[in-house]
Amino acid sequence: MATTVLGVCGCAAASSKRVFSSLSSSASPSSSAACYLPASAARARASIRALQLHSTFTSQNWSSQFLHVEGDKLPFGAKAKSTNGASRVGTVAANAALEAPPKDEIKRGGFRSKSPQETNVVIVGATGYIGKFVVKEVVKRGYNVIAVAREKSGIGGKSGKEKTEEELRGATVCFSEVTDAKTLENALRGKAQSVDVVISCLASRTGGVKDSWLIDYQATRNSLDAGRALGASHFVLLSAICVQKPLLEFQRAKLKLEEELMSVGEGFTYSIVRPTAFFKSLGGQVESVKGGGPYVMFGDGALSACKPISEADLASFIADCIVEEDKINKLLPIGGPGKALTPLEQGTMLFEIIGKEPKFIKVPIQVMDFVIGILDFLVKIFPNLEDSAEFGKIGRYYAAESMLVLDPKTGQYDAEATPSYGKDTLEDFFRKVVRDGMVGQELGDQAVFK
């Protein structure tokens, strides 16, 4: 069956094939399991903490606090007031971005006055899909890059040390397990006496409950702590735009890490990058359509929209975050160039490129709701089905929610408010994939249907 990707936001989606196969499989042991806020100084941190940003999110009331600030900005060190926003959509972290601290405080980091050749940048998640692009871009800009990788990396752990070192050419490769804090710190000490910046491209490959907390939270937190232990004063986090409406475990895990990162305190800065859809996530049906198959979508094909960004453009934006002052201590939603596109528009574009008459299959969203309902019931009896239930919810989320900035006042997604960056377009990507195939674009665990 053709691969249909609902996926987006760079977050790992899971194969629905696993969801349905889980229904017929016998119960088996469940998977093993695995939690600072915008403030670069104690003053801002105190204001944020007063807003109770450690609220517990649930699907019924997943947004318990909203931020209302003068002039739509929270100046460094300013106070803000919060109001209960249970009836609205969004989170306090959705669109509220702190302004950068005064320049004299920024300079305390020290590294911003160095040349790239004198700046040590650690990149974790370096062998992941986006991580590889980030390593390449940061190396190209002349920084001393220490790329952290597992000894067996890539999809299914197929890449050994030699292949990994070849893929990360130009960087010093540090082989370590990011899930063990002390092991990671010791491994980094063996590669550098000090660190200036840490960039995290870590993300759960499946979006499963335990894996999300192990990777999106704990491993990323380990990277933060290890970097600080070696003197890092800036952290660039690759998050996801979908965390602004947190209904899934990986979103909650990412949000908790964001909060802890933003509350590290004075002398430490951050940039939190929240991208929309990656091109890769939207290319799963190209081969099927090229072969004469239909384009599959949910509802009328207009339930959601996104402003997809290429992996190379996203890597460039992340590299900008190393030193650019307008990206310091900010939540940074980012999409690619051009208008927001619905699945219907994406499919129509693809048929035009291939030169075939459009042929669509529209799947009622209620089908997913039915399956999720069954799984939620079964997980009470068979806890090992926990991930299968979560995978179904991930697929449903991607089918119905836009990967755009969410306006907390209106509860609507806003394409105009979603920043654009880069030059690569989805149309160019589709043309390339139609011509060359998905070489280097393997979907792995991110496919929703296979």
Radius of gyration: 21 Å
The level of helicity is 25-40%
Average pLDDT? 79
Q: Major beta sheet, specifics?
A: 7 strands, parallel
Structural class designation = alpha/beta
Q: What characteristic shape results from the CA principal axes?
A: globular
CATH class of the domain at 42-276 and 310-334: Alpha Beta
DSSP helical segment count: 14
Numbering strands along the chain, what is their spatial order in the largest sheet? 5-4-3-6-7-8-10
CATH topology of the domain at 42-276 and 310-334: Rossmann fold
Question: How far apart, in Å, are the first and last alpha carbons?
Answer: 6 Å
InterPro entries: DVR-like (IPR044201), NAD(P)-bd_dom (IPR016040), NAD(P)-bd_dom_sf (IPR036291)
Protein name: Divinyl chlorophyllide a 8-vinyl-reductase, chloroplastic
Enzyme class: oxidoreductase
Catalytic activity: protochlorophyllide a + NADP(+) = 3,8-divinyl protochlorophyllide a + NADPH + H(+)
Structure description:
The structure is a single chain. The chain is of the alpha/beta class and 450 residues long. It has a domain at 42-276 and 310-334: Rossmann fold (3-Layer(aba) Sandwich). Helix content is 34%, strand content 13%. It is built from 14 helices and 13 strands. It has helices at residues 16-24, 42-50, 103-106, 129-140, 161-167, 181-189, 209-229, 249-262, 286-290, 311-320, 343-354, 365-381, 386-400, 426-436; strands spanning 65-68, 81-84, 120-124, 144-149, 172-175, 197-200, 234-238, 269-275, 295-298, 330-334, 360-363, 405-407, 412-414. A seven-stranded parallel beta sheet has the order 5-4-3-6-7-8-10, sandwiched between helices. It has a two-stranded antiparallel sheet with strand order 1-2. The protein has a two-stranded parallel sheet with strand order 9-11. Helix 7 (209-229) links the parallel strand 6 (197-200) and strand 7 (234-238). Helix 4 crosses helix 10 (311-320) and helix 6 (181-189) packs parallel to helix 7. It is globular and about 60 Å long. Mean pLDDT is 79; it is low at 1-109 and 443-450. Its EC number is 1.3.1.75. Residues 125-323 form the NAD(P)-binding domain. It is an enzyme of class 1 (oxidoreductase). It catalyses: protochlorophyllide a + NADP(+) = 3,8-divinyl protochlorophyllide a + NADPH + H(+). GO terms for molecular function: 3,8-divinyl protochlorophyllide a 8-vinyl-reductase (NADPH) activity.
